[in-house]
Amino acid sequence: MEILDSRGNPTVRVFIELNDGTKAVASVPSGASTGENEAIELRDGDSTRYAGKGVLQAVANVNEKIADNLLGLDASQQALIDQTMIALDGTDNKSNLGANAILGVSMAVAKAAAASAGVPLYQYLGGAGARRLTVPCMNILNGGEHADNNVDIQEFMAVPLGAPTFREGLRYIAETFHVLKKILKDRGLATSVGDEGGFAPNLSSNEDAIETIIQAIETAGYKPGEDIAIALDSAANSFAVNMQGSYDLSWSGAGKMNSEAIIKMAADWVSKYPIILWEDPLAEGDWGGFKKFTDQLGDKIEVVGDDIFVTNTHYIQKGIQQGIANSALIKLNQIGSVSETIEAVRMCRDAGWRYFISHRSGETADTFLADFAVAMDGGHLKSGSASRSERIAKYNRLLEIEQELGDTALYYWK
What we know:
alpha/beta; Enolase-like, domain 1; TIM Barrel; 2 domains; 3-stranded antiparallel beta sheet; 13 helices; 16 strands
């Protein structure tokens, strides 16, 4: 069926029932800052409904095409079911049936199989040894495509790498989030939030954003770089003049820059501030710039490719071979099925890369992502800020998982 996501736009919800009576439901997220090579999210294009963003065709594809081809298959055969849908679609980017249709079914199948087997989803997907809670990289200040302000960088994240447990780490950054609100309010700045729940004030520069977060960390009683570090997502596509190394950071007043200038700026920031991760510092077509960035900073921080890799093993493999980054962002709906997402994680792990599990800016209350992050043993996850219930739902599910695991739960950054 067609439902609404956290931005009020249509998305797909899928219901499944097994022969033993087990039922499951899954809802599909949607992105705003998207890579050119992402799997296609099928929209109706009917301007009389939801400004063309309706998903009735994707829903019909689930009910009328996919369902008929999956009836009688064993829900525990995730890869077979996903491959059956991919073959039925017949395209490289799932543009026929829609990645939103295929992923909704894929997620629902995994949930149903786990429930039928009587095990938690994280254990079903990750095996009996799945017990590592992720470090939450909380987006506490927004810019770029996720806000209407004069900050170029899309996400500024607080990372509680010094906490002893997930529960305590979540507390560290939630407290910092609330202190940040007070600091912004005292400065007469807006405390409204962007799509992912972070504050979206007009600040004097991108560095002002970092320094304000450091002030919030210290005011909350924590040590920057020791208790809480900083992660950035530039989403550089949003300020790229072209995809070959020309950029315009005019929102913040920094002006036009080339790849070399951005790398120089980044190196300066990494030396000055407790930054440990930087996602999409350059545009998806700027492979040469990305490699130079990684060559210079990859031994100091995690360099994450998002739009450049789009959770696709074809692009991740190319990135590994060329040394473009040292980590890939992992988003289920970028590739469009659970088993393909697991393959992307496996490729990163086999190459000695990190992999950064992520939500989307258009989310739902579905907590699949929390279980998936624990199952993948990734170590870190971004799922938004300490506001907006579709973000909090993931954090609360992780708290539940930590409680279920008890003393066997692991939590660490490295």
